[in-house]
Amino acid sequence: MKKLSIITLSLLISLGSFAQQDAKAKTILDKLSAKTKAYKTIKAEFQFTISNKTEGINESQTGKIQIKGDKYFLSIAGQDVISDGKDIYTVLKDAEEVQINNIPTEDEEGFINPNSIFTLYEDGFKYKYVKEDKGFHIINLYPKEVEDKEFHRIALYINKAKNEISKIKIYGKDGSTTTYNIKSFLANTTIPDSQFTFNKTKHPNFEIVDLRD
């Protein structure tokens, strides 16, 4: 009986600790969400790294993203990805090709929409406060529908002083780790709507491949 009571007490302490951590995570994420949603535009530069020890992969590239509402312009690895909020235009510079696609849903093949990368925690995730380390809050996100995702966990590194996301690590089910290190972050600058529109005249010799349904 005494042993059972000790086990029960330990379980209650653990559950209480988890609840407190969740509450702390929610407070931090709510504050971050309110600040991020107030931005009219976002410009960011980042370093993108994907590693998989089993496969011997360790690749790193730099990229830039501009966001305005449901529109975005992403430039990385010799390609520009443009979304006007209705369709996605992927400009493959070396291949001189432009692919047009429908915008996937968030749960389609584990897709993470670039224009929601700074607010991805708001829907479809459970979260847990891990710790504070060197001025960063570290919070783990766990997808509620894990069977529909290609990843099982996302770690957010939130700058405590700036209340901004500084790093995102996505842990894939295949053993890979994808990391976005935010190198610069600028909000509320003027970005013309034309930035988020594919201009065919700028790519006169490119083949247009329409893959929309």
If you had to describe this structure to a student in words, what would you say it looks like?
The chain is about 15% helix and about 45% strand. It has about 210 residues and is α+β, with helices and mostly antiparallel strands. The protein has one domain: Clam (outer membrane lipoprotein receptor (LolB), chain A), CATH 2.50.20.10. Strand 7 and strand 8 form a beta hairpin.
Uncertain residue segments: 1-20
Strands across the major sheet, in which order? 7-8-9-10-11-1-2-3-4-5-6-12
Structural class: alpha+beta
Query: What is the CATH domain class?
Result: Mainly Beta
Properties at a glance:
213 residues, alpha+beta, outer membrane lipoprotein receptor (LolB), chain A, 12-stranded mixed β-sheet, 1 helix, 12 strands, 45% strand, disordered N terminus
Q: Helices, strands, pairings?
A:
Layout (H helix, E strand, L loop, with lengths): L1 H36 L4 E11 L4 E12 L2 E6 L2 E5 L3 E6 L4 E6 L22 E9 L2 E8 L7 E9 L4 E9 L4 E11 L19 E4 L3
Parallel strand pairs: 6-12
Antiparallel strand pairs: 1-2, 1-11, 2-3, 3-4, 4-5, 5-6, 7-8, 8-9, 9-10, 10-11
Summary of the model, kept short:
The chain is α+β, with helices and mostly antiparallel strands and 213 residues long. The protein is built from one helix and twelve strands; from the N terminus they run αββββββββββββ. It has a twelve-stranded mixed β-sheet, with helices on one face.
